[in-house]
Design a protein that fits this description.
Layout (H helix, E strand, L loop, with lengths): L1 H35 L3 E4 L3 E4 L5 E2 L5 E5 L5 E5 L6 E4 L2 E5 L4 E5 L2 E4 L5 E4 L2 E4 L6 E6 L2 E10 L4 E10 L5 E4 L4 E3 L5 E4 L2 E4 L4 E4 L2 E4 L20 H15 L7 H27 L10 E9 L4 E8 L5 E9 L5 E5 L6 E4 L7 E10 L6 E9 L5 E9 L2 E8 L5 E9 L5 E6 L2 H4 L5 E6 L8 E11 L10 E5 L2
Antiparallel strand pairs: 1-4, 2-3, 2-7, 4-5, 5-6, 7-8, 8-11, 9-10, 9-12, 12-13, 13-14, 13-17, 14-15, 15-16, 17-18, 18-19, 19-20, 21-22, 22-25, 23-24, 23-26, 26-27, 28-29, 29-32, 30-31, 30-33, 33-34
């Protein structure tokens, strides 16, 4: 009987311990979630933002940024029920404030090798002077007035995300570029070797992989060695030169000269085979590839390479597929290295491939491919002042489009144009934009007016879809 009572007491204690343990864990997890959700920030609608999959987020109104229990930041636009995951660290560029803000724990790297940890929120107001941050594994942020190289040029800030093969995705408010080959960016006198993750300042190098490690698997290729024929030829020539003095080694001289003669005979035989088309012909290296892709709002600049010494490729062309699965084809010159695809829509994802058809085959081969996102609508349309029946406006355009012509119109927001003028594109592309006035004979309280661009075309005469407008209600 005593043993049974003792067992019951032990069992009760055991259950109590389990309940207490579970309660402590629940409180701990809940407390952790509460702590992590305490970070909350207001985000301006003028911010340039990418989600954790590098898709651009366009805001119509201000939004709220929250850090949640999984330590990731989430964006909640005020005009919708959508929720965007931005990852454990994220970068915002506020165009109206001309400043970059980093959220999350990151590391600032100085050119002297010093490293400083930054937590929660880091505001960067000076976008002219060089600053460099490691955001996460294979992910960096560059600040500077001039960032780029001979193929790429941008300013203020640039996010760099590197895949495990050393290729880079370059992002900011004006470019979204996927590079195919190893790339070095210049920021003044500083160089960023992206594939090798090295920051170079003169003779000193900072190995960025050592900051919290790296999963980068890129290995720089060694220069290719010369083929055996060239090595033999070089060796024979060296022997001939070495033995050309008065050392009496005439036997070696004879042997070397015979080798040189044989080498010449072999090379002549090779050339003969190449001319006559025999099966002994040497296959020369040939290749088709994308070098870089630079998308803007209405066009994409493509840098490509065609190596075809024997003229084996019958044709080389680009294929561009849009969101509606429509495909456009652009045939390339094998003697050129650049091509611009025009007449595109802003903020649209395209699938781009470079293809070729070789001799003796009707089959089209995809040599390289990439997904490209064109930039957002680069126009600002604002009614800045109302004085009686006179409306003052300001139009700003950015050179994402190669703007050719457009009209600025005041409408009733239902498709009826009340007044319009031809836009001075040069003025609109200036820093201050084009300022002008509209006047209307009759106004009705409570009605709506919209300022918008119409009949927008690029310099090639292609129509451009522009979505920017300013809507007001008359009081």
């Amino acid at each position: 009987m005593y043993n049974k009572s003792k067992n019951r007491v032990l069992f009760a204690v055991f259950i109590l311990v389990i309940l207490l343990t579970v309660s402590i864990l629940v409180i701990s997890v809940y407390g952790s979630r509460e702590k992590n959700t305490m970070e909350e920030y207001k985000i301006s609608l003028n911010s340039a933002i990418y989600d954790e999959n590098y898709s651009y987020i366009s805001l119509a109104k201000d939004a709220v940024l929250k850090k949640e229990w999984d330590k990731k930041y989430y964006l909640y636009p005020n005009d919708s029920n959508e929720k965007y995951s931005l990852g454990t660290e994220t970068v915002f560029y506020d165009k109206s404030m001309n400043q970059v803000t980093i959220y999350g724990t990151v590391y600032q790297v100085y050119t002297n090798g010093d490293i400083q940890e930054k937590t929660s929120k880091t505001v960067i107001g000076n976008l002219s002077d060089f600053q460099f941050f490691k955001l996460n594994d294979r992910k960096y942020l560059i600040i500077g007035s001039n960032i780029g190289n001979e193929n790429i040029s941008t300013t203020k800030y640039l996010e760099v995300s590197i895949d495990k093969a050393g290729n880079a995705l370059l992002l900011n408010n004006s470019i979204n570029i996927k590079t195919i080959n190893p790339l070095v960016l210049n920021i003044g006198d500083i160089k960023f070797d992206i594939a090798n993750e090295k920051l170079i300042n003169g003779e000193s190098e900072i190995d960025l992989k050592k900051i919290n490690g790296s999963t980068n698997e890129y290995v720089e290729k060694e220069p290719e060695e010369e083929n055996n024929d060239n090595n033999n030829s070089g060796s024979n020539n060296n022997n001939n030169n070495n033995n050309g003095g008065n050392n009496g080694n005439t036997g070696n001289n004879s042997s070397t000269n015979n080798s040189v003669v044989q080498d010449i005979i072999d090379r002549l035989a090779q050339l003969s085979g190449m001319v006559s088309g025999t099966k002994n012909q040497t296959n020369l290296y040939k290749n088709v590839s994308l070098r870089s892709v630079n998308p803007r709002a209405s066009y994409i600049d493509v840098a490509y390479s065609v190596v075809d010494p024997e003229d084996k490729y019958l044709s080389v062309y680009l294929a561009l597929k849009d969101e509606d699965e429509d495909i456009m084809y652009y045939y390339l010159s094998k003697d050129s290295t650049e091509y611009r695809i025009t007449g595109l829509k802003p903020n649209v994802q395209y699938d781009l491939t470079i293809n070729y058809i070789a001799q003796g085959s009707n089959e089209s081969i995809v040599a390289d491919s990439i997904i490209v996102l064109t930039s957002i609508d680069p126009t600002e349309v604002r009614i800045t002042k109302i004085n009686g029946n006179v409306f003052t406006y300001n139009i700003k355009m950015y050179n994402e489009f190669e703007f050719g012509s457009a009209k600025i119109a005041l409408t009733d927001c239902n498709g009826t144009t009340l007044n319009s003028y031809a836009l001075n594109v040069d003025d609109a592309l200036s820093k201050t934009g084009q300022t002008g006035e509209f006047s209307l004979d009759s106004l009705y309280t409570g009605s709506y007016l919209c300022l918008q661009l119409q009949n927008v075309q690029d310099v090639y005469g292609s129509d451009i879809k522009v979505n920017s407008y300013h809507k007001i209600k008359l009081n």
